[in-house]
Amino acid sequence: GQSLEQPSEVTAVEGAIVQINCTYQTSGFYGLSWYQQHDGGAPTFLSYNALDGLEETGRFSSFLSRSDSYGYLLLQELQMKDSASYFCVPKAAGNKLTFGGGTRVLVKP
Amino acid sequence: EPEVTQTPSHQVTQMGQEVILRCVPISNHLYFYWYRQILGQKVEFLVSFYNNEISEKSEIFDDQFSVERPDGSNFTLKIRSTKLEDSAMYFCASTFGGGNYEQYFGPGTRLTVT
Q1: pLDDT by residue (tens digit) across A76-92?
Q2: What is the chain A residue with the closest CA to B43?
Q3: How far is the C-alpha of A33 from the C-alpha of B99, rounded, in Å?
Q4: Torsion sign across C-alpha atoms A54, A18, A57, A90
Q5: Where are any strands of DSSP class E within B10-108?
Q6: Strand partners, B45
Q7: Interchain proximity A37–B99, CB inside 8 Å
């Protein structure tokens, strides 16, 4: 089974830093993915953490602590185009992705 | 950069009609998926497909749904007798390997059942 917890919405201004926390309970956990989805658009892969620690990809970084069943996505130097929904997606055995409700990030000028 | 394509972008159909949603996955990918997203709700897994057979399906994927890879490039989702509640955005995705955390999604087909 699986449960996921993320904040439903975060608002920040351009140039700010936003951290989206994710706690999960997933049987047979392999790692944690993050996806971005703009309104009306398709989910787009951002990052994946299989091991504990921080993975940095440009302005976005993702962190995982397996012992705490916790991860976060850090969005730095926020831009208007970062306004979207962000999903933490725990990876377990099998092929499917199981999305939760996600976090809607609203960037204001 | 290779991408997943889907047609049509928007399909309107009457309740009870059959619809076929089409996808062209990335050419060297081997695993194919359908997801749906009802407006304002989360993305839900429907089915995964590998080696010309279903590898996993959700409870949503009942007898009204079927998938097919009719040739070397297309991957289709058929809904036999559409219901109002089938109205949603349907996303196709593909990956090279199984259990791959990085799935490539197509732009989606918006299905409206009236």
Answers
A1: 999 999 999 999 999 98
A2: A99
A3: 12
A4: positive
A5: 10-13, 19-24, 31-37, 43-50, 53-57, 65-68, 75-79, 88-95, 104-105
A6: B35
A7: no
Residue B71 makes CB contacts below 8 A (sequence gap 6+) with none
Calculate the CA dihedral of residues A55, A57, A58, A61 and round it to 10 degrees: -40
The answer to whether the Cβ–Cβ distance between B101 and A89 falls below 8 Å is: yes
- pLDDT tens-digit series, residues B22-70: 999 999 999 999 999 999 999 999 999 999 999 999 999 999 999 999 8
Q: Which residue has the tokens 């299989």?
A: A50
How far is the C-alpha of B26 from the C-alpha of A45, rounded, in Å? 15
Q: Tell me whether B104 touches chain A (CB under 8 Å).
A: yes
Contacts of B107 in chain A (CB under 8 A): 41-42
> By the CB < 8 Å criterion, does A44 face chain B?
yes
Structure confidence at residue B60 (pLDDT):
95
